[in-house]
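Bug report

Summary: structure tokens for Putative membrane protein differ between web form and batch submission.
Environment: batch mode, default settings.
Steps: 1) Submit the sequence below via batch. 2) Compare with the web form result.

Sequence submitted:
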Amino acid sequence: MVGSPDTQLAAALDEAQVPDTTAQGVLDINSGARLEALQVAYAVTALLATTALFFTARIPRTPSVRPNERLRPPPRVAAVRRTFPRRCPVAAFSP
């Protein structure tokens, strides 16, 4: 069956040979129930979104480092101190 829910319900009520006054009452109740269900769904969604906002307050606003570390420039790599002689010992013995 293709169509709106009211069309599908009306077709099912006609097939079941429900009297017209009763069928119209069922269609009215169904229409009101669908509207109420939509409103409840939006209300639950709004409530969940509002609740989620309170949990976002626990998210840190800045990285978890101390303020002094954040402002200090990164350390420079110290110059490597030469621990070997300037001349290679093998070159000193070459003829």
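Above is the batch result. After comparison, the two runs are identical; trailing whitespace caused the diff. The chain has a mean pLDDT of 78. The CA atoms of residues 24 and 36 lie 18 Å apart.
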